[in-house]
Design a protein that fits this description.
The structure holds three protein chains of three kinds. By secondary structure, chain B is an all-alpha fold. Chain B contains 16 helices and no strands. Helices cover 75% and strands 0% of the residues of chain C. Classes of the chains: A alpha/beta, B mainly alpha, C mainly alpha. Chains B and C meet through α3, α4, α10, α12 and α13 of B and α5, α6, α11 and α14 of C.
Chain lengths: 492, 332, 348
């Protein structure tokens, strides 16, 4: 099906997300859409898939103008979208997930649906058990389930939003294979990403978006440097980050065993040294979050011992870790990091570790203003944190950290941030390392793990690799490892 | 006590559980869709009073039951409107409604205090009622009790086995995902909250036209059942069958406290009669204790074999609410 | 600046509208039940302010509701629904009665006994409130349901005491325990029953809460917990300890309410010793959107409605629960109108 978008406009309050975008994708093509976070890619795709409506503009399918009012409408028109975090129902069975949204009589024909599910799975070489539960799947497998479901519903246009984040090399290979097969069969594929190499591998054409506008289009062979320039409007220099000579051991995990109801990990050993950055790689749910929580005292290990500065901290609570200079920055900033409804100055007041009874407003305001300046936060002392942009929220979280820290633990430190914010955050973090702080962070972006870490731990369904030196590995090897391949080689 | 007397007693337990069964299943529907209707305590009392008045005036049981359902539906609509359309706190609105409905019931009901009204009669089901044990236990009751059996089975099949039931689970669990699958999340939430409210509203007349016939103002003894129903909904893990089991358990406790009374002459009767109320609410401890941080910390410190056994028991008892419960949905 | 002022007027307009709607609904209800509305309202006002006796009844009832509502602001600040407040008031009353009974015939001076009994009452309220906190922290039981369970237990306990160990000689009935001798009453002005001490405690209570929530680190930490408990934990606030603290502070206030109900209002233990002030306080707190400056006037208005309605059954053969209906409608429509306002102003 030929998809045409004409002069699409969309604003969110004062922010222009899409500014007169026009794009024509012919049938059977794999169209790439490239742009950094906040460029308006997702908005455009949400408009096409009916999740939101454009303020202005036309959508034309096979030459006929259509109005898409909802995702269900889009499906009726043959357009399906795979969201970055697959929109499914984790506590429910795969087959039920597959069925919800499929129309028919009161009682779903489960036997027929199961047969068709297994046929589709076989066709694409996916191995999914329809009786299993979705919360036992990796993101890659959940994507496979969604793709199957959308095809079952008869879509002709498949939109994929950042599908290669958080999946293994093998899953990526399978995904690309599937997409090529679908395109060859006449389906139209729109592939949204900020990763040049993925777009280059797969797409027959790529359109670049920046600040809500279409700034260019390219067909193979792709000129990566030119694409980068189009994406950012200028040349971005990745700062050369120097490696810091590691100091004393700040955190030691000795034969630690961790478990929750899904995962069991044992015999984890790690020594983290002052000034060092350790990246944790793995598909979501492979155990790296549990590990990080155990480092912070948020989760009690079922075996082994945890030492902070040679002090045995096994079984101690998070606050004791905090008092010994261990800080934890969670992934969801407004849910687990900042308190919506409180202002910046109130946050600094809370984080200050004051001992008095009555609040010293003058001192608090002075502190807040200094920090706002130091960390380049676009906001006032009286600004409620929820009205800050994502980048500013992350900077505020960093600004809230105590001056002297032994260890900073971070979950997805740059998720959802534009490249400049991300670079800023890492510069600040590296400055911390210079002061003798160790950093352990999780990221599903293997490039980030590779670029910023000194050593890397790879997690795969509860298995933890020995620390790998970042300069001795590459994205390909990490991609294999997080998918469970190449571990035997690693052990030797 | 002879076997027959016990059997008759247990049959009464089942009949007096009927209003709670309706209320908990109604609330289960509402909460499954993502809306907490906290107004149950007021709803039940107000619908009991209104339906009793309607039944007195029309001399019709049917109109009585219907009016109870209407009252429940209206109150549920207010909860739905204020939370779904106006984004107000469901707990706040529910609590205000429950208190207002109570006052309203006592205010409007005072002319009907101690009036004579119709009551429902037992209708034994031919054949079934003559089966030994099961017959007198289950099939020598009133039509509403039979309806409650059908409701339990029907609700379970609906939620877990039908297509609309799957969507109901979906809108409560992850509304955005249900939305992209074509569900009109907010309209469905309205629908299920109102439907649930109507079922809760039926609990009122089942009391005032049967189980606790009549209207006696503040001493009608209905204040409290709504809170019980709410806690049984949690105990029931949002599953109609487990919720109904909770309702029968509560009813059984009430009966036991009644027959236990002669054995404890020193404890005033009033005390034993209210005993099941706190007990039932404290059963939530069993369902929820695995959410407490110290439990998980303590478990982590135990040897593996013990840990496994305890964790398994706790997980069997545990019930997780629908993930979208109480959270408004708006497609951006 | 101008915008800020107009939005304040818009707010007031919506609140005024809410009050009108609540009154309209109550009037409709009166018409439907065949009562002359104007006269009913007149009786309500006269019942509250028509005579010195009535006014003093209003003032007597004011202190307990004021104190309860002040305490509830602390749990609300921490995002907690302390529905168990009724039980906490009840326990306060039980502990106060217990001390009064125990020292009634002792050599202690009456002043000393009264002070002891009030302190004991506060302790009792705090104890019961911390049970709600324990159930929540260590049992995972939501405070609404834990609180309700403890409310049931508390009222059962009162029944047990009244019919059991503390029953009046000869007759055990719902009219409660034996009335305490005059010297164990909180000192009051002449024979009107208004106690300056109760008053002072009420005013002091709301002032303490006002400054506590506004200007202290603990108050700010409670607010952070109330708005987002997970973030508060990440920021290093000991969340469960502070939630426990907020329950205990609220319990102290509730216990004081119970103590006043015994020492200044009823002078004995009754089954319905709370007068429903716990739930009424929750309603008032919601009505004023948890702002401490409004507690005093609105609680005064609410107790005036309560006292005023006592006349209704005699004068107009209307049930006195009319006041509860009006009180509920006010909160309901203020909440709804707030939602309407937010919806309308967000669109603009």
């Amino acid at each position: 099906m030929q998809v045409e978008l004409h002069d699409i406009h969309k604003t969110f309050g004062p922010v222009y997300a899409n500014k007169g975008l026009t794009l024509v994708v012919p049938s059977g093509m794999i169209q790439g859409i490239l742009g950094e976070n906040g460029a308006g890619k997702s908005t455009l795709m949400k408009i096409l898939s009916g999740f939101i409506q454009a303020d202005r503009g036309e959508i034309i399918l096979n030459g006929k103008q259509v109005v898409i009012k909802s995702p269900a409408d889009a499906i009726k028109h043959g357009i399906g979208m795979l969201h970055q975090d697959p929109l499914d129902f984790p506590p429910m069975q795969i087959l039920d997930n597959f069925l919800i949204g499929h129309s028919g009589g009161i009682f779903p024909q489960k036997i027929k649906a199961k047969r068709e599910f297994l046929n589709l799975a076989k066709e694409f070489g996916f191995s999914l058990d329809p009786n299993n539960y979705v919360d036992a799947l990796t993101v890659g497998e959940r994507q496979q389930l969604e793709i199957m479901r959308l095809l079952w519903l008869g879509v002709d246009v498949l939109i994929l939003d950042e599908p290669t984040t958080g999946i293994s090399a093998e899953q990526k290979k399978k995904l690309f294979e599937t997409l090529r097969k679908l395109a060859a069969g006449g389906k139209t594929i729109i592939f949204v990403s900020h990763k040049l190499e993925d777009v280059g591998d797969l797409c027959a054409r790529v359109a670049v978006l920046r600040e809500g506008e279409l700034v260019g289009s390219m067909e193979p062979p792709f000129d990566n440097e030119k694409l980068v320039e189009m994406m950012f409007g200028k040349v971005i220099v990745q700062p050369q980050l120097q490696t810091i000579k590691p100091g004393e051991c700040v955190l030691e995990m000795r034969d630690v065993a961790i478990e929750d109801y899904r995962l069991k990990m044992s015999e984890i050993n790690l020594e983290a040294y002052a000034g060092e950055v350790i990246g944790l790689a793995g598909m979501e749910g492979s155990g790296q979050s549990l590990f990080l929580k155990a480092c912070a005292g948020l989760l009690r290990p079922v075996g082994g011992a945890v030492y902070v500065h040679n002090e045995n901290m096994t079984g101690k609570v998070y606050r004791s870790f905090l008092q010994r200079g261990v800080a934890y920055l969670p992934a969801s900033r407004l849910e687990e990091g900042l308190v919506p409804g409180l202002t910046l100055s109130e946050h600094f007041c809370l984080a200050d570790g004051n001992t008095g009874f009555f609040i010293d407003r003058k001192q608090n305001l002075a502190l807040t203003n200094t920090r706002i300046k130091d960390f380049n936060i676009h906001g006032l002392a009286t600004t409620p944190v929820e009205s800050l942009s994502g980048g500013n929220q992350q900077r505020a979280l960093l600004a809230l950290l105590k001056d002297k820290l032994s260890l900073i633990l971070l979950e997805h430190p740059t998720r959802g941030l534009d490249i400049e914010s991300a670079i800023y955050i890492w510069r600040k973090l590296k400055a911390r390392c210079n002061d003798g702080t160790a950093i352990i962070f999780i990221s599903s972006d293997l490039e980030e793990v590779l670029n910023y870490s000194d050593r890397i731990l790879v997690f795969f369904s509860g298995r933890v690799s020995r620390p790998i030196r970042a300069d001795k590995t590459n994205v390909e090897e990490l991609g294999e490892l997080i998918g469970g391949r190449g571990w035997t080689k690693l052990a030797t | 006590m002879s076997f027959e007397i016990v059997l008759i007693g247990l049959a009464t337990v089942i009949i007096s559980a009927a209003p709670i069964v309706f209320a908990v299943i109604g609330e289960t529907f509402s909460e499954r869709s993502g809306v907490i209707n906290l107004s149950l305590n007021g709803t039940i009392v107000l619908s009991a009073m209104i339906s009793f008045a309607v039944a007195v005036h029309t001399n019709s049981l049917i109109f009585g039951y219907l009016s109870g359902m209407v009252v429940g539906a209206i109150l549920a609509w207010i909860v739905a409107f204020s939370s779904i359309s106006l984004h107000q706190s469901q707990v706040a609105v529910g609590f205000v409604l429950t208190e207002t409905a109570l006052s309203l019931a006592y205010f409007l009901g005072s002319p009907y205090t101690n009036s004579q009204g119709p009551t429902i009669q037992r209708v034994p089901i031919p054949l079934l009622s003559s089966i030994p044990v099961i017959g007198p236990l289950l099939f020598n009751a009133d039509p509403l009790t039979y309806l409650s059996y059908l409701l339990i089975i029907g609700a379970w099949i609906y939620v877990f086995k039908t297509r609309p039931g799957l969507i109901l689970q979906g809108i409560g669990e992850r509304p955005a995902a249900a939305f992209v699958r074509g569900a009109n999340v907010n309209r469905l939430r309205y629908m299920y909250t109102i439907l649930g409210g109507a079922l809760v509203g039926l609990a009122g007349p089942i009391f005032s036209l049967g189980v606790k016939a009549g209207w006696k103002g503040t001493i009608s003894g209905l204040d409290g059942f709504g809170w019980i129903a709410l806690s049984i909904t949690i105990f029931g893990g949002w599953n109609p069958v487990r919720a109904a089991f909770g309702a029968y358990l509560f009813s059984l406790l009430q009966w036991l406290s009644l027959i236990a009374q002669p054995a404890f002459p020193s404890i005033p009767g009033a005390v034993l009669q209210v005993a099941p109320f706190p007990l039932m609410i404290l059963t939530l401890l069993l369902v929820n204790i695995s959410d407490a941080e110290w439990v998980n910390r303590t478990l982590a410190g135990m040897p593996e074999s013990t840990r496994k056994v305890i964790a398994r028991i706790l997980r069997a008892l545990h019930a997780s609410p629908p993930a979208g419960l109480g959270i408004p949905f708006e497609n951006e | 600046m101008l915008q800020k002022q107009t939005s304040r007027w818009v707010n007031l307009g919506f609140q005024f509208l809410a009050i009108l709607v609540a009154l309209a609904f109550t009037t409709l209800l009166l018409v439907l039940s065949g009562a002359p509305p104007i006269q009913a309202y007149k009786e309500l006002i006269l019942g509250a302010f028509g005579s010195i006796d009535n006014v003093s009844n209003v003032l007597i009832a004011w202190a307990p509701l004021l104190i309860t509502t002040a305490g509830l602001l602390v749990t609300f600040a921490a995002g907690l629904w302390n529905i168990g407040i009724e039980g906490q008031i009840t326990l306060g009353a039980i502990f106060t009665t217990w001390v009064l009974r125990s020292f009634e015939n002792s050599s202690l001076s009456p002043t000393m006994i009264i002070i002891l009994s009030i302190v004991a009452g506060m302790f009792g309220g705090m104890l019961w409130a911390s049970l709600v906190g324990v159930l929540k922290t260590f049992g995972g039981v939501n405070e609404i349901f834990g609180g309700l369970g403890l409310n049931f237990i508390a009222s059962t306990l009162v029944l047990y005491l009244i019919y059991g160990p503390w029953r009046r000689p000869g007759v055990a009935s719902l009219s409660g325990t034996e009335i305490f001798p005059n010297r164990l009453w909180l000192p009051s002005i002449s024979n009107l029953g208004i106690s300056p001490w109760a008053f002072a405690l009420g005013i002091l209570g709301i002032l303490i809460i006002y400054f506590f929530l506004r200007g202290t680190y603990i108050g700010l930490k409670l607010k952070a917990i109330g708005k987002n408990i997970r973030s508060a934990h990440t920021l290093g606030i000991p969340t469960w300890q502070y939630m426990m603290l907020s329950f205990m502070i609220c319990g102290l206030f509730a216990g004081l309410t119970g103590a006043l109900q015994v020492t200044n209002v009823y002078h004995r233990l009754l089954p319905y010793i709370t007068s429903g002030y716990g739930f009424l306080g929750l309603l008032v707190a919601m009505l004023i959107n948890y702002q401490a400056i409004w507690v005093a006037p609105i609680t005064l208005f609410y107790v005036a409605l309560n006292v005023g309605s006592v006349q209704l059954p005699i004068a107009l053969k209307l049930d006195s629960n009319l006041s509860g209906v009006l009180q509920g409608f006010l909160v309901l429509f203020v909440l709804l109108m707030e939602g309407v306002r937010q919806k309308l102003t967000r669109k603009v």
